[in-house]
Amino acid sequence: MKRKNVKPIIIAIAFVLPFSVSQAQSGHPQDAKAEGHALHQKQTGSPVFKDKKIETAYQHYLHIQTALVASEVHEAQKGAEMLAASLKALDHATEAQQQAGKIAQASSLEKQREAFVALSNAMVTLVEGSIVSGEVYQAYCPMANNNQGAYWLASEQEIKNPYFGDKMLQCGSVEKTLQ
């Protein structure tokens, strides 16, 4: 196997394994999605929110962020579709829902990353003040968004830049901790 073929396989396993394991355990596809996110939460130490709808939306947001870090257009689209659907249940999430829709419709990584700037800003509004336990880190990259800078949310302090992926994976810093 050539070395360049290893990365897509690892990424595919990382996205498929939690869903496959949970679906095998429950036998229900809907349960598989929920369990996949629960598994992700246990692995990353994601926060707990007052409103389960916001918690679900945040997990879908992390799906998009992880896909953008890995430069996976189709995975970002899938995460954005799930996020847009989950945001319909929230009254004050119109902007986030629109931006998630843009990511779901975008066929290029560049367009997805552009929409992710506004999505991240909208998600800060949803998440801030809703955390019961744990922390959400607001990270910032000064070079993102055509050198205008851009924020994103993460459940870990380690910088994994969704705006540049492996080109500049660690560009940025945690600017704020939301609790």
Features:
single chain; 179 residues; alpha+beta; Four Helix Bundle (Hemerythrin (Met), subunit A); 59% helix; globular
Q: What is the CATH C-level name of the domain at 45-130?
A: Mainly Alpha
The oligomeric state is single chain
Order of helices and strands: HHEHHHHEEHEE
Question: Strand order, biggest sheet?
Answer: 4-3-5
What's the end-to-end separation, in Å? 45 Å
How would you describe this structure to a colleague?
This protein has 179 residues and is an alpha+beta fold. It has a domain at 45-130: Four Helix Bundle (Hemerythrin (Met), subunit A) (Up-down Bundle), CATH 1.20.120. 59% of the residues lie in helices and 12% in strands. The protein contains seven helices and five strands; from the N terminus they run ααβααααββαββ. The chain has a three-stranded antiparallel beta sheet with strand order 4-3-5, with helices on one face. A two-stranded antiparallel sheet has the order 1-2. The relative contact order is 0.12.
Short structural summary:
The chain contains seven helices and five strands. It has helices spanning 6-26, 29-44, 52-69, 73-87, 94-105, 109-127, 144-147, and strands spanning 48-49, 131-133, 136-141, 150-154, 173-178. A three-stranded antiparallel β-sheet has the order 4-3-5, with helices on one face. A two-stranded antiparallel sheet has the order 1-2.
List the helices and strands and how they pair.
Blueprint lengths: L5 H21 L2 H16 L3 E2 L2 H18 L3 H15 L6 H12 L3 H19 L3 E3 L2 E6 L2 H4 L2 E5 L18 E6 L1
Antiparallel strand pairs: 1-2, 3-4, 3-5
Helix pairs in contact: 1-2, 3-4, 3-6, 4-5, 5-6
